[in-house]
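Structure catalogue
Derive tokens from sequence
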Amino acid sequence: MTPEPRYLDGPADHGLTFSVCSLVRDGWKYDRLRESFLRCGFTPATTEFLAADNRSGNRLDGYAWHKALLPEARGRYVIFCHDDVELIEEGAAHLLSCLDDLDRRDPSWLLAGVAGGLWRAKAQGAPPLALHISDPFGNDRRRGQLPARVESLDECFILMRRARPVLSSHDLSGFHFYGPDLCLQAELSGGSAYAIDFHLRHHGKGVRGPEFRAARRAFIRKYQAFFPGRTLHCTTGSILLSGQDPDPASEAASPEGQTTSPTRPLAR
């Protein structure tokens, strides 16, 4: 018997608005995340929760877990967030309002998040950032005017449309720089990324150790071929996409497990 074809005129509509996908290492943190989303209007009628299960070890890294969960997502919007994120007051209605505003401003947008480095900004010293977040470095912190086009996004919260997905690189690995990687992949495909005014709390602190520096070197090796000489602004600092870009001295001197600057509080 010959299988009958399915004729499609677009992505399937599963009746859900959001797929909230999380990289989960601690069950109690994930419970807190889900409770906050439910409290802020992400109801069972509109939202599904998917978890990349790293509770027993790092089975999936930062570049792999998006690709593992995206085919399972059924929501119109797919949120990728850390398990240590907690919504405060702004919820589903406010997020939809932010995304409608992006549609009007720039229909080519592919990614949205809560913190990132300004797109093609010229600056010296601390990287120019756009963000609105509460975290271990302060409550209700704001930088820049939102929404703002960015060239990197912090990995604690990244959203995309299921109908216009962005995939992370297959030739990079680890738990660092997969947010900037997604943004550059979006740019290479003709899209854009934005930081939006969706205030939430991120309980995590970033660390800079050997894995961070190795991921930075691999990221530079890959993207200096596409954007030679470009300075990329990230929440972890600015990067010169050139073979001459050194590891910052503050990273080399920083003890393992310690954050080094309040300009980079958000990286995993």
Notes: The helical segments are 27-39, 62-69, 92-105, 178-188, 210-223, 249-253.
